[in-house]
Amino acid sequence: MQLKTHTRPKVIAVQVMEDRIDAATAIQFKEKMRDATKDGPARVVLDLARVQFLDSSGLGAIVAVKKLLGPDRALELAGLTPTVEKVFRLTRMDSIFTIHPTLEIAVSHAASA
Amino acid sequence: MQPAPDPAPGAQDLHLTFPADPFAVREALARMLALPPLCTLGPDGRGTAEIVLAEVLNNIAEHAYVDRVGPVAVTIAAGAQGVSCLLVDEGRAMPDNRLPAGRLPASRLPDGQTVELVDLPEGGFGWHLIRSLTRNLTYARVDGQNRVSFLLPRDG
Question: φ and ψ at B123, to 5 degrees?
Fold first, then answer.
């Protein structure tokens, strides 16, 4: 499970470099996200543009990361591919995350905020 | 093994047996999606098939085989109404010999407010996804085996 982290003044952008977050990698994903976001700005954007597949374990891990960040920080999502979007929509978890079309849009949103 | 319900007789039926552990499941999913009949579906149909098969297989790996890795046999057959799937394992029976209801865990309160952060659900999504995306979902415990079958509708 490889993540690429870019820390900017007001936002941490984390790119998932794998094509899936599933039962085989969900725990590792959660641990790596915890390390990647330990310090830094309150706002975290998770770029899922490369992730073609997410199962309920992967979804649970993303929710767990949101909880780890706590109430004073935000986990936002960007770049949902069609199958990933379907999992968020069917479980209604799309309603508890701010979801941006792309990482670029998410980050430019931060710059103008 | 008995064929899946309502199968189309044909050489395109796929039979696959593999150990129910997360990495073998991942490999098997890749094979299933690359072979007929699933490879003939559009991207949306393949995505749906992968979600459903992954959730049923994860459930077998985590709950049917609690402390060991056992085999699971998958049959996938194309028919007039869609793709029929049958998954057979030799693990523990489902609680009360029936499938979980698959009620979606609450992320919203009745007044529409989001639940407290600490109360957000991290699991319990699997059977909701399976039930949302399939038809004719059945479960039977036969001769020490769990048999789960369902239809992935053609238009789903």
Answer: -155, -175
